[in-house]
Amino acid sequence: MKYVFNANIPTSPIQLTDDGDVKFFIGLNCTNGKLPVPLCITVEKRIDNHNQKSIFNSYFECHMSSEIDKELNEDSMLMHKSRHIHCDSVETLTVDGENGPRFQNESHEGYKVHDWNMNETAINEEDYRMNTNPTSDKQVTQIGSFRTGSAQSAEILTMIDTSDGFIHDNPTIIEDVANERQNMMQQPIVSGISDDHLEEHQIYSSKKELQRKLYMMALKRKFEFKTTKSTTKLLLVECFDKECKWRVRATKLGISNMFQIMKFYSTHTCRLYMMSRDNRHASSWLIGESIRETYQGIGCEFRPNDIVADIRKQYGIQISYDKAWRAKELALGSIRGSPEESYNTLPSYCYVLEQKNPGTITDIVTDCDNQFKYFFMSIGASLAGFHTSIRPVVAVDGTFLKAKYLGTLFIAACKDGNNQIYPLAFGIGDSENDASWEWFLQKLHDALGHIDDLFVISDRHGSIEKAVHKVFPHARHGVCTYHVGQNLKTKFKNPAIHKLFHDAAHAYRVSEFNFIFGQLEMIDPRAARYLMDIGVDRWARSYSTEKRYNIMTTRIVESLNAVLKNARDLPVLQLVEELRNLLQKWFVTRQQQAMSMSTELTMWADGELRSRYNMSATYLVEPINSKECNVNYAGISAQVNLDTRSCTCRQFDLDHIPCAHAIAACRFYNISCYTLCSKHFTTKALLSSYSGCIYPTGNEIDWVVPNHIRDKVVLPPKTRRPTGRPRKVRIPSGGEGKRTSRCSRCGQYGHNRKTCKRPIP
């Protein structure tokens, strides 16, 4: 017996194929005994024997002729009914907005009749009412509540499909819904692969999760199985040994993606020779999933050889190096995401970053084919701190990236009042060439604006020099004394020249510089000529006409490159997020550090001042007037002017911290030497430098991004990876030489602690 409902209102039904689907649907959606989601129900009957009537027939014999007649005769229903029910016919309920619903007796021989199993639960004599309640988008027929032997009621709603006038399902009346839902709520959903416990009625979030659990179980218990049948709704696996009875049967729950184990035979009787040395389930994907947690974060040194050893120790399985490498790549890919997707998500990330951090400047440049070309980022908190409290000396440098599409990371950084690295801006480009350096420095100029007394320090890269002169025409460009010294080592092979150059570059007095440089010229005139061609005012502190302070090298940028060593392996989006996260940590830590300082100057500046104060204890002061004096020590004199904050030794002038002569003068005139220090070295300025907050972008799923930003296409750049093993270590500068590592375990040179094989007595 079937009922097919026809209506004029179009709906979109959800098909449920069997009793388990219907029960699961009701269990998920039933709230307080009501179904907010309409459900299509098919009535099935069961005939056990010729002499026994089914519950369905008993029920309808008692109620169809009496109760439904009463319902159909109501004025509100206006229905024409058929008093005879035939097993080979279908009673059709037609809903008409004007004339009301009516029954039509139609024959549908093609319908398959299923048995209705009520589990021998008796239905009490309650009203079985049918009401039609039109809604805005679907017609719902409500079958009144019925009661089972357990005295628990459930309200069932029937959805009427009107796309073609027929319901394309085999509906089932469900009893004992409340008990079924309670049993489901008590059965937790299994997740994770660490536990190899398996039992019937376990529920898994997906078929893939169940398969993963089975694979890991096979590895741990050292057996193999084969998949007998795998469909979207069924998974059947059994032991690879045909004589073994171990097997698992799981089915999909309703319209969800969850799978439940229905049958599980847990006893293994496998023959030992069926087990192989390399388990067939030990795929690179499964191993990658099992070691995924090891690669959380950055900087993990879990190499393929380590994976091979770990899998052999943990599971007794020997895997190849290639499989371990693929497992590592899969694990990293599942954590970091696709490099291609990373480029495409970058515009949305930059938009959210600017919204979360006011004052932040980002820019993405693509070519005519929408392929990535340049990227620039400067956090608003860094820019605000630079304008108020940071010395205007900017060091710039570039370092190579190691991800799939390579590239170069451009960095601009300064030093704060505590002599710490203060990142200012970052950029990404194809390589260190004229176009990329000019673009990066132009974006940096736009972000900073005009800065008085700006001093830019870099290595002697020709592209940087051209770009600085073009973009910052009023700024002074100095070169890194470390790189110049390394070049001297390479070109002239004389350690004495390198030492004399270092002393001359760091000399404060011009007379002292001339004396040292004269000695260098006598030793090797070619080296002196090489240094003169660079420009003495670009590397010698004594000839510097601008405020260089004590910053003579680009070591702050080189140090930042070392900090980002592992981050340079990441895809572009994760790299940018790691840069932002690094700044967030530094700002919070250094703000707390500044708040804990009790001195007027920062810890570094206070230490410098104290060391010079101790030196000045034996200096003799000869006053000239109320602000000027002559200071003598060991036959060397220096004239100090406290009003102009200058000294003829030039240390006071260049470092902007009182020299020992000036401190002796302050003590003589009873003046606090703290008042003569530059404002950049005060604790107040340090706190102001890190007063801003850097906020994270949050989860990508929560981003609110305009369509024109979200729809922007950014493809990976046009790069071609060179042949051979990818380069992970930078190319040493000229004259830098190769460092010899020393083992911290045995104290010998040539290896480190990790590769040490020497026995310890």
TrEMBL record:
<dbReference type="Pfam" id="PF04434">
    <property type="entry name" value="SWIM"/>
</dbReference>
<keyword id="KW-0479">Metal-binding</keyword>
<dbReference type="Pfam" id="PF10551">
    <property type="entry name" value="MULE"/>
</dbReference>
<dbReference type="Pfam" id="PF03108">
    <property type="entry name" value="DBD_Tnp_Mut"/>
</dbReference>
<dbReference type="InterPro" id="IPR007527">
    <property type="entry name" value="Znf_SWIM"/>
</dbReference>
<feature type="domain" description="CCHC-type">
    <location>
        <begin position="742"/>
        <end position="758"/>
    </location>
</feature>
<dbReference type="InterPro" id="IPR001878">
    <property type="entry name" value="Znf_CCHC"/>
</dbReference>
<dbReference type="InterPro" id="IPR018289">
    <property type="entry name" value="MULE_transposase_dom"/>
</dbReference>
<feature type="compositionally biased region" description="Basic residues">
    <location>
        <begin position="718"/>
        <end position="730"/>
    </location>
</feature>
<keyword id="KW-0863">Zinc-finger</keyword>
<feature type="region of interest" description="Disordered">
    <location>
        <begin position="718"/>
        <end position="743"/>
    </location>
</feature>
<protein>
    <recommendedName>
        <fullName>SWIM-type domain-containing protein</fullName>
    </recommendedName>
</protein>
<keyword id="KW-0862">Zinc</keyword>
<dbReference type="InterPro" id="IPR006564">
    <property type="entry name" value="Znf_PMZ"/>
</dbReference>
<feature type="domain" description="SWIM-type">
    <location>
        <begin position="638"/>
        <end position="670"/>
    </location>
</feature>
<dbReference type="InterPro" id="IPR004332">
    <property type="entry name" value="Transposase_MuDR"/>
</dbReference>
